[in-house]
Specification:
The protein has 15 helices and 2 strands. It is mostly helical. Strands 1-2 form a two-stranded antiparallel ribbon. Helix 9 runs antiparallel to helix 12. The radius of gyration is 20 Å and the shape is flat. This is Protoheme IX farnesyltransferase.
Length: 307
């Protein structure tokens, strides 16, 4: 096999435990686990701590399985993009079939365990999420439309709903709001990234918004999504399942996010846009972790203190 014309050494069989862990996309999994935990804890039904931990483990394994299946299908473009060339298949450490089997086994185990020990609604929701990410996003949308991140982003927004379903056996308006916060956060987060790794996506022929519609359209749409996300971010407060601390924190964080998105939209093309995009990208990570973190801590404190 080759990587952009350069022979790749065949190291098949030399994979170590770290390579299998990398298939799970641990950084992405950490976000999946955290938001699922928030959904589980914020839900109005108390869960046995051991069962709750098992539910989060199943969601983590299912999320990791999605990452492995994504790497199995995307191995050809991973060889082209600089930031993905060291993944197990492009590096020659594993075969396509090994990665596919790994992803399918983890998917089946996570869904079956979730169904037997938690509830079958959350298990089927987890199965749907794996299918959505691996098939709808990876196989269908990613290479066919600049709206890939918008539609496919739903897969990354489902975990808090699955956590909520693990606790309650269903979904509700509150869990949908948690979904919407991540869903609306995803486009400005990834479009900001695409603006400063644009050549990688071009080389891989992935139709990201910046490559297909241009910088200005991407920046304008990112700003629009940022405004919607900021408004949705304060919804838990207005709906009554978050307190004033969350309300103030989410409002301030949302305003800062919108400010970064506005600066990126108004920045001149070239180096100024890249700088603004990097600032928005990195703050977007702060925003999501902070909003869900405040909601988690506030919920726990309110329960422990009895108010």
């Amino acid at each position: 096999m080759t990587t952009a014309g350069t022979p790749v050494e065949d190291n098949t069989g030399k994979a170590c435990s770290a390579d299998y862990i990398s298939l799970l996309k641990p950084r992405v999994m950490s976000l999946v686990v955290f938001t699922a935990l928030v959904g589980l804890v914020v839900a109005p039904v108390a869960v046995n701590p051991l069962l709750g931990a098992l539910a989060i483990l199943c969601i983590a394994v299912g999320g990791g399985a999605s990452g492995a299946l994504n790497m199995w299908y995307d191995a050809d473009i991973d060889r082209v993009m600089k930031r993905t060339r060291s993944r197990p298949i492009p590096a020659g450490l594993m075969t396509h079939n090994e990665v596919l089997a790994f992803g399918l086994v983890l998917s089946a185990c996570s869904v079956f365990t979730m169904g037997v020990f938690i509830n079958w609604f959350s298990a089927l929701f987890l199965a749907f999420t794996i299918f959505f990410y691996a098939v709808v996003y990876t196989i269908w949308l990613k290479r066919s439309t600049p709206q890939n991140i918008v539609i496919g982003g739903a897969a990354g927004a489902f975990p808090p709903m699955i956590g909520w379903a693990a606790a309650t056996g269903g979904i509700s308006a509150e869990s949908i709001v948690l979904f919407l916060i991540i869903f609306l956060w995803t486009p400005p987060h990834f479009w900001a990234l695409s603006l400063f790794v644009k050549t990688d996506y071009e080389a891989a022929k992935i139709p990201m918004m910046a490559n297909v519609r241009g910088e200005q359209s991407t920046k304008l749409q990112s700003f629009a999504y940022a405004v919607l996300m900021a408004l949705c971010g304060v919804a838990p407060w207005f709906m009554g399942f978050a307190g004033a601390v969350y309300g103030v924190a989410s409002a301030v964080l949302g305003l800062v996010f919108v400010l970064f998105a506005w600066r990126m939209w108004r920045a001149s093309a070239g180096e100024l846009t890249i700088r603004a995009a990097k600032k928005l990208f990195f703050f977007s990570l702060v925003y999501l972790s902070s909003v869900f973190g405040v909601l988690l801590v506030e919920t726990l404190l309110r329960r422990w203190l009895g108010f």
